[in-house]
Design goal:
The protein contains 28 helices and 4 strands. By secondary structure, it is an all-alpha fold. A two-stranded antiparallel sheet has the order 1-2. Helix 15 runs antiparallel to helix 21. Residues 172-208 are annotated as: Disordered.
Length: 758
């Protein structure tokens, strides 16, 4: 792999613009190389002309050495000046000048090189200052945790005080041993390098009795539950945030603080990689400059780079060591192997068996689909009475698995394009690094799921068509039930098989959707709820399972569910459940953020719920009045959804954008993709009206038309997914949000009850 590709691959996507622009510098170097070649050709032509003139004139000049062509390596051809901007010298800029007149391309290269060094240096220093401040807060959190352990476990507070004091001395000893490190930060015993007064104050804070620390501490319940949310609504939040000093509370605090440490450690690792990759990039580009310009400037410029803040600061390395030692001591019982395993991200290994089984299942799927089609055609199933029975009873049961398979296929395509365009979807979804599924794994699950579903359908067909015995027909009726039970068992299987971490992550997210008003809404929560809105027909298919098997319809080989009042009620309710999830989430976001946009977004889902109820009423009553109301309500809901999809979720159709009717920042280079996506979104949204208009297509059964429209909605959702996450990623890039914000478990207040500013 070339350095250019490796450099691109190792970038933190949200910081991409803050890395050295290696590609731009390479382009300028190509201009330097071409201009040098042109100049060398001119010099060679002149030299040849002068040599001919000397030969004819009889004059021969002796040359001792070719000094003009081979510049001495020790000759200083560039001069780098350091300009201090701030009075205290905290900010510095670098400016490079050539000691002799050269081409315009070389001057442009050096100017761009200085700009990149200044940019990288300033950004790195800003991020280091931020992690130093965060380490100060984290140090205080650890001290409070130690004090809480003393209180809960009835330990000797004197021993804990000695422990804290010992750790403080350890930090002081490190500073004495390494005088060059005067700005390092200890996350356990943090000292501020700005003034000696602050260092002494913090040291005195550490030497306090651990019990005194708890006097001005409240607990923040970030790992909330529906019960804790209800308590906060109906009781005083200050009372709920008081420490109760029990083991359950201690476990919650330890879990939350462990997450804070892991995220902080990842941030430090990213900063370390940022420094290393940029230093490597400067070294590589200077070697290329030396080669193309034939001048020995690399050593001089790299000396400046190495002496800059980017090259000299080792605060991040020291912080990494201290965070690791503190985490191992406090959260893994001094087990170094276990502590490092929890802190460091799990690297995914490429497995050839995934590719093999994906290909195997794909081949099986094609064969099974072909066999099913041939079976239906050869038996002329659709021309017989049993064909109507299949379309009315069996096909809706199996369509559930078709919807799920199609949605998984769209998600596999999404993950492929997200990775291709460097959209950090694991971070956006809050997935633990190393446990996310890539497109190969999702496609493996998709093909495996589809193979089982089509195989069951073929078995059902075989038992139904070729076995006159009634017992075989009864067994055929139970095949769909067995299939859905198998899928549910695999989904909730507690054993570490079939991507358990991803299954449990999905279950937790689904639970948060169900309990939407009681949880703070994350991107994963509303993203999953939006997926469910495109699966409303799956919810109705699931209700059909309950009616068909729960009420014994399968044993009578008839489907009279629509004549049952309880089924009709469920049919109404389940159609609006996914939209209720999103409406409840919008209400919660409005409560938390006080942003009117969430109220408008909620009204969009409310209009969809109204349209769904009216349309479902029209399906059951078939009255012209209800049809008119269904058309009006559906049209309003569709217009609101189209506007929100394109303008809000995708941030397109910006009037003053440099890209006409798009937005300023685009990840996909081909602008036509965005225009096509907008048109497709509108067309596929409008296709929903077919469920109200009931336009009959003679070759297709009514159930097949409903299934087709539901599949089109799932495809539309897959298109929406890519551009929605692209927009969210660009927002993170603009704000340099590359890490998950995990709230600290403790907050501090003074004697008057006012929160202290950290």
């Amino acid at each position: 792999m070339t350095f250019k590709k490796d450099f691109k691959q190792q970038m933190v996507p949200e910081w991409e613009k803050e890395y050295m622009d290696y590609e731009c510098l390479k382009k300028i170097l190509k201009e330097v190389k071409s201009s040098k070649k042109a100049k060398d050709r001119d010099n060679k032509h002149l030299q040849h002309k002068f040599s001919l003139e000397r030969a004819f004139s009889g004059i021969h000049l002796q040359h001792g050495s070719n000094h003009q062509n081979d510049e001495g390596i020790g000759e200083q051809v560039i001069e780098v000046k350091t300009l201090e901007i701030d009075v205290d010298g905290s900010k510095e800029l670098f400016e490079t000048k050539l000691n002799e007149e050269r081409g315009e391309a070389e001057a442009r290269f050096l100017q761009k090189l200085d700009e990149e060094l200044n940019k990288v240096n300033a950004f790195y220093k800003e991020q280091v200052e931020a992690v130093k401040h965060e380490a100060t807060l984290l140090s205080k959190q650890v001290e409070t945790l130690v004090a809480l352990r003393v209180k809960v476990k009835n330990l000797d507070p004197g021993l804990q005080q000695i422990r804290l004091s010992g750790e403080d001395n350890m930090y002081q000893n490190h500073r004495q041993k390494d005088p060059t490190v005067d700005s390092e930060v200890d996350p356990v015993q943090q000292t501020n390098r700005s003034t000696h007064h602050e260092e002494e104050a913090h040291s005195n804070y550490n030497r306090r009795d651990p019990m005194e620390i708890l006097e001005h501490v409240k607990i923040d319940d970030a790992l909330q539950s529906p019960i804790s949310t209800v308590k906060n609504v109906f009781t005083d939040s200050n009372d709920n945030n008081q420490l109760s000093f029990n083991k359950e509370e201690l476990k919650k605090v330890e879990k939350q603080l462990r997450l804070v440490f892991v995220e902080f450690y990842q941030k430090l690792l990213h900063l370390k990689d940022y420094s290393f990759m940029n230093l490597s990039a400067f070294s590589k580009i200077m070697k290329k400059y030396e080669k193309n310009a034939s001048r020995g400037a690399s050593r001089e410029y790299m000396r400046v780079v190495d002496n800059s803040y980017l090259g000299t600061s080792d605060e991040v390395n020291f912080l990494l060591e201290k965070v690791e030692s503190t985490f191992i001591r406090n959260f893994s019982h001094s087990n170094h192997k276990k502590g490092r395993k929890l802190l460091r991200p799990k690297m995914k290994r490429e497995r050839n068996r995934i590719t093999f089984f994906t290909g195997f299942f794909s081949g099986c799927l094609v064969s099974l689909i072909a066999a099913t089609i041939l079976r239906i055609v050869s038996q002329q199933l659709m021309e017989k009475k049993v064909g109507t029975f299949y379309m009315e009873n069996i096909f809706p049961l199996y369509s559930l698995f078709g919807y799920i398979t199609l949605h998984m296929l769209m998600y596999a395509a999404n993950t492929y394009f997200w990775r291709r365009y460097r959209i950090n979807y694991p971070f956006l979804f809050g997935i633990r690094p190393g446990t996310e599924l890539d497109h190969r794994e999702v496609f493996l699950l998709t093909t495996g799921h589809a193979v089982v579903a089509v195989l069951c359908f073929l078995i059902n067909l075989q038992l139904e068509m070729n076995q006159p015995n009634r017992s075989y027909k009864t067994a055929a009726e139970l095949v769909p039930l067995s299939l859905i039970v198998l899928v549910i068992l695999i989904t909730f299987c507690p054993f570490n098989i079939i991507y358990r971490s991803s299954r449990f992550f999905f279950i937790r997210s689904l639970f948060r959707c169900i309990c939407a008003p009681f949880f703070t809404v994350t991107l994963m929560d509303f993203f999953l709820a939006d997926q469910l809105t495109s699966q409303f027909q799956s919810f109705r298919s699931f209700v059909l399972y309950i009616c068909y098997y729960g009420l014994g319809e399968h044993s009578r080989r008839e489907n009279k569910c629509r004549s049952r009042g309880i089924y009709n009620v469920q049919y109404f309710v389940v159609g609006v459940i996914p939209y209720w999830f999103r409406l409840a989430q919008c209400m919660r976001q409005l409560y938390d953020e006080r942003d009117i946009d969430h109220a408008i977004n909620g009204s969009k889902y409310l209009s969809t719920i109204i349209a769904m109820v009216i349309r479902t009423t029209f399906e059951t009553k078939k009255a012209m009045t209800w049809k008119v109301w269904a058309l009006i309500s559906s049209a309003v809901a569709i217009l609101l959804n189209i506007y929100w999809d394109i303008v809000k979720d995708w941030s397109l159709l910006q009037r003053h954008s440099k890209n006409p009717y798009l937005r300023d920042k685009l990840i996909v280079s081909h602008k036509s993709v965005y225009y096509i996506a907008m048109v497709l979104n509108i067309v596929l949204r409008i296709s929903w009206m077919q469920l109200v208009l009931e336009l009959h297509w003679k070759p297709l059964h009514r159930v097949a038309i409903i299934t087709l429209i539901s599949c089109l909605e799932i495809i539309r959702r897959g298109i929406w997914n890519f551009f929605r996450l692209e927009n969210e990623h660009l927002n993170n890039v603009g704000n340099y949000r590359a890490f998950k914000s995990v709230p600290h478990p403790f907050s501090y207040h003074d004697d008057d009850g006012n929160d202290k500013d950290e």
